[in-house]
Amino acid sequence: MTPENRAAYWRANLRLVASCLIIWFICSFGLGILLVEQLNQIRVGGFKLGFWFAQQGSIYVFVALIFFYAWRMNHLDQKFDVHEE
Amino acid sequence: MSLQALTYLVVGTSFALYIGIAIWSRAHNTGDFYIAGKSVSPLANGMATAADWMSAASFISMAGLIAFLGYDGSVYLMGWTGGYVLLALFLAPYLRKFGKFTVPEFIAERYYSKTARIVAVICLIFISFTYVAGQMRGVGIVFSRFLEVDVTLGLAIGMGVVFVYAVLGGMKGITYTQVAQYCVLIFAYTVPAIFIAIQITGNAIPQLAFGSDVSGSGVGLLDKLDDIVTSLGFNQYTSGTKSTIDVFCITLALMVGTAGLPHVIVRFFTVPKVRDARISAGYALLFIAILYTTAPAVGAMARYNLVNTIQPGEVGVIDGNLEYERRPEWINTWQQTKLVRFEDKNNDGRIQYYNDSNSAFAETAASYGWRGNELTVDRDIMVLANPEIAGLPNWVIALVAAGGIAAALSTAAGLLLVISAAVSHDLIKGIFVPGISEKKELLAGRIAAAFAILVAGYLGFDPPGWVAQVVAFAFGLAAASLFPAILLGIFFKRANKQGAIAGMLTGLLFTYGYIEYFKGLFLKWAGSPWGENVAENWLFGISPEGIGVVGMVLNFVVAIVVSYLTAPPPQRIQHLVDHIRVPRAV
């Protein structure tokens, strides 16, 4: 593996990690904590939306996020030919 | 069959299952003992991680905690799940690629330093012991309530079972028992939740019932709960009382702490490949989320059930409150354990349950003829008493007892194993007797595990006053010491020995000092806590529960600055970092 290739793989990985972290932050700290008062004005079913994000929604997003990350990383591994046999 | 006989049968069967699995999957070498021979499938590892992670506190206490805290309880829900995202993104795949046995071993090799290894071992042992004491306590509580044996005997039985499968089976043994324990505990948790959801809302899925209408009323459960608790002087259920910065910091400290807990990290050493470690973190969180999204529904429904039982009629009208003579059976049973207490302060023969520490509500309460709150309910019983409150059949109650024990034992075993690995692999082989044979190391691991069980049992039997307070410390410590050191080791090539040691010590001492200052841990003889634990005194308004975040930031800053001021790490370390960043062996 050339040093350039290695660096490109690592950069692509960091980009993916950064986008996942942004979503992680928004769905928990953003919607569940910082903006909770504003979102509580909106109702979805019997839930106030901010409360729902804090006690339900953020957890669903976390689960989806890890599977998304694993799927994209496998793709990156293939693309840069660094996947395991 | 009586409830007690049924409980013995269910709990006894589950114990037989765990021991059977341990004999079938016992460890033959150190690889089996420490990391299950790297042969665990990602799905099985996900389940084992979920059981490893979900402790007696998650199973027994969390829903009750949320029931009484309402929105403020969200810090635990987000904090104890969001950490898995950090684990998957920053640690699990790289540590799996590193491919050794323990967390301190990674720190030692990456930072080419025995000192760093010793600092990591100290953090690990402290974090793990504080945790394990709580588990043993949980086993004792379940035994004394459901099997009506002495707490000490209950503890001894629990220790005996863990002894057999952790000492004999090592990581391999505990992995497969944890898979079984996950099945027991998740079944035991969700079945009563479904029953109660149907009873209250008619919707069988607790996650949806939570936001549904109370049957026949046309009013949402949460709205009804908000109404009724505020009319009793409590804070609104769906909004919080903590400051935003404190909620923010506690949540972040719990997340980062979760990702830094050695017994969780080490589970990702047991899968065959790097890609397995990534997907396995997803499975782990999925299995955890089943319980963690049910818990807030259970909390809200339990609070609703409790308030509705005590206050069946209008607030302020005399016959709006329950007559003590007509109390349901569960109040009776739990009064015997002293976890429910009643005192008829105004001698009206009825139970009043309200917030008597709310000064704005005091006048209203006095005008109702109330002379103080008369019912004290320990929050730890909400999950355990739930099936009784909802009038569910005996087999459900027996199942909940087995589930509580499974949650406590699975976590205890995982913790005991990382403690024993730290002693036999990091201290004995890594530092004191490097030439030790594999056979002797395995024996040392088993002896260390046995010894750790005895210490844990002692801590559970006679918990020193600090046990309840150290859980915050365990997370704060993991967040402020191990997590930054591992993260920088992977993502920052320039990080060197001096930086890592200075960073870990700064994070550790700062976090410990702050908690000692406000809560008092080991220096009580010297007059700690020195500061009154109130928001006005806190640094930036951050409570001791959330201070690990500041410790973590300090660790990062110190580690980076010191690394730049001292010599860069040797060439071979740069190669090591290159090696762990790429899945395929080069």
Q: How far is it from the N-terminal to the C-terminal residue of chain B, by CA?
A: 63 Å
Pick out the low-confidence regions of chain B: none
- Name the pair of protein chains with the most residues at their interface, and give those residue counts: A-B, 44 and 52 residues
Number of helices of chain B: 22
Number of domains of chain A: 1
The rough form of chain A would be described as elongated
SSE series of chain B? HHHHHHHHHHHHHHEHEHHHHHHH
Return the structural class of chain A.
mainly alpha
The percent range for strand residues of chain B is under 5%
What's the pLDDT, averaged over the residues of chain A? 92
CATH architecture heading of the largest domain in chain B: Up-down Bundle
Shape of chain B: globular
Order of helices and strands of chain A: HHEEH
Per CATH, the class of the largest domain in chain B reads Mainly Alpha
Structural class of chain B comes to mainly alpha
Strand content of chain A: under 5%
Overall strand count of chain A:
2
Q: What's the number of extended β-strand segments of chain B?
A: 2
Q: Strands of the largest sheet of chain A, in order across it?
A: 1-2
Q: Would you tell me the overall average pLDDT of chain B?
A: 87
State Rg of chain B: 25 Å
